[in-house]
Amino acid sequence: MDHQALQQMLLLSFRQEADERLQLLADQLASRAANNADPVQVENLFREVHSLKGAARAVGQRDTEQLCHHWESLLAAARRTPALLHDHNIELCRQALHLLRLLCNSQPVPVAQRLQMQADLDVAATGQDWQQSRSAAAFTQAAFNQDTPFNQDATFTENMPFAPVALAAADSGRIRVSNQHLTSLLLLTETLQQLHLETAEQQRQLKQLVQDSAVLCKLQQQTRLYERQLRLLLEPLSATQQEPLHKMLQYLEASGSGLDQLWHGSQRLQRHAARLSAGLAQLSENMHSEMQAVLLVEGQTLFSGLAAMSQDLAQQTGKQVQFSATDQQLQLDKRIVDELKPVLQHLIRNAVDHGIETPEQRQFAGKAAFGQLTLSLSQSASDKFELKLTDDGRGIDLPGLKQRALAAGLGTAEQLDTLSDEEALQLVFQSGLSTSAMLTEISGRGLGMAIVQDIVERLAGQLSLQSVPGQGLTISMLLPSSVSTFRALLVRCNDRTLALPLFAVESCLRLDSSAVQYTQNRATLLVEARVLALWRLADILQLPPAAASASPSTSQSSPTAPTADQQHVVLMKVRGESFALLIDELLGDQDITVKSLGPQLKKAPCVFGATLLGDGQLIPILDPLPLYQKARQLQSGAPAAEEPVRQQIRILVADDSFTSRALLKSILETAGYAVTTANDGQEAWDLLQQQHIEVLVSDVEMPKLDGFHLTLKIRHHPKLENLPIILVTALHSAEDRQRGLDVGANAYLVKSGFEQESLLDSIRRLVYTLHP
């Protein structure tokens, strides 16, 4: 390699190293404001600047080395006196960092500006105020009239020999690999894993062949006992009669010998295949482990640049922020780190822009002027980690969020009022909905949180929020440590094998057919006091019916195959919404490798990838969110042709218990009714005056106005006296039942023995009297 090519290579390597070190310096300076007397932080700053100076010297970057040298002088003084790095000198360090970025990227920096910065650093190192000592004009003139000591240093010339060893020493034992090469290695590793699976399947088939051959050989040995007897029986026969029988005996003898050879040969092949499969398995495992080690990076890499970013945002918004980050020295998959960086950047923008208050607002609320922004990384399980971002700002204004959701058409006022705080927080993930009061260049477009949720779910992670008004917001992300393998549940529908991501699967059930309830041509399932919508997976995917004859893979009885009166159900959960899928057969769960569909099938509905099983089957991997969205479209579609189209019946549910109210609302809406809710009897009475309600489902024990008195008022109202009323209550005594009937209730259901079909049947009978 010639001198010029070597120089270009070293410069490229230097810039890559400089970018990393400058980013670390920016983060350390940003967190420095939070604790300006920590000698450990001063030591870290000094070492980074010293290492950058050495790297610059190795590639002949004189201006960069000089500036680092003067900055190093200030930091060396601060090592002895950490308090020397006060706010003014921290600002000077930030200005020096800015100039170094320009120099390391070969951008023009005026000589006077660089020399002024070096002089200011020298002044600050003596403990004096560099701002008072600065005299830019005089210093600039002096700089042009005389050379600096560095200009007289004969060591730095254009013909200076390069020292690649110095660069290697900065990070010994490591090399840089391009993303393209790393991706190629990953594909090769996945191919090796697939070959291992196929080889293991071939070895299994050979083993079965040996067992089958052994059975045939045993039978052939038994036939040899009768061969001599057959020959004795042939002697009385004529030669013409003996000839075909002798030929048959010769064939049996030859086939027996061939069968013996086949058996011994298959044994040798099976042993060889077993050794090959074991070796390939070991090689695949080692390759996978090594690639995992290559892909793993320090968890603190995730924090790079975030401290400096928070400081810049705070300056832009007129706020004061102290950023801190903690980790447990975890190692994470580089691909996950790359995906999460834009997520954290957006969350920090949100926190600083409209989470943390201005210093004046914070002091008025009794808080410190500096807002606290904390990022923590911890091990949650052997294969999972938790990333948590916490701020002590104003939190999320839930009433304001509901108002914005109402304005955006994300629900009616009644629907939004019935949401719990946890459910209301999920509104921030709706695309186009923002809690920001105005649109700024930092935030306010309402797209970021939806994108954040998409990224976390694509990584098979879980996202949760915890907001305390006036005290702050905590955003937690539970994520896998690696994306090299993917755990999936394999199911069968209409003779087709499909994979469901296991992170979206709550549980798998085998239920009697009677557990499925059908109301208005819609199937529901009651699981642990939850009424879940139920769809056939084959219907959602519009799979053609299974062939009349069983396929080889399903012809044998399976321990997971349902009987005629049983059905398999998979409970799924997507973005807080639970639903149930009816399938034909459960095949178990296993680790799979996800293959991209390619541009031709990129828009295939409900499918985001595919995997190859050991027997060569190409299995589609279903995407839970589009699957649920498509299922809801089926539910909200036109009713069955045999059912007449009728206007939705409006039902009012009155109950002071949120859980009971939500359960009743879910049952009735799933059955196709329009539901309005009230928190107590008085609110129900007010709604009856304002809206057209056709059925009332009410609790009895409620504040302000109980169910008995509510029923009595309705029966004495001329316009409401015929309103059907169903009381659903925990009061189960005969006296309570009688009182319910005395005040005019049409039905009285006890919660302890409550069944959804009883409620729906009561409503159907009452509604039929109104709409025959």
From TrEMBL:
Alphabetized Pfam families for the sequence: CheW, HATPase_c, Hpt, Response_reg
Domain of life: Bacteria
UniProt KW keywords: Kinase, Phosphoprotein, Transferase, Two-component regulatory system
Domain CheW-like: 485-633
Modified residues (4-aspartylphosphate): 699
Post-translational modification Phosphohistidine, affected residues: 50
GO molecular function: phosphorelay sensor kinase activity
TM annotation in the entry: none
Segments forming domain Response regulatory: 650-766
Domain Histidine kinase: 344-483
Enzyme Commission identifier(s): 2.7.13.3
The HPt domain, residue ranges: 3-107
Protein name: Chemotaxis protein CheA
Source organism of this protein record: Rheinheimera riviphila
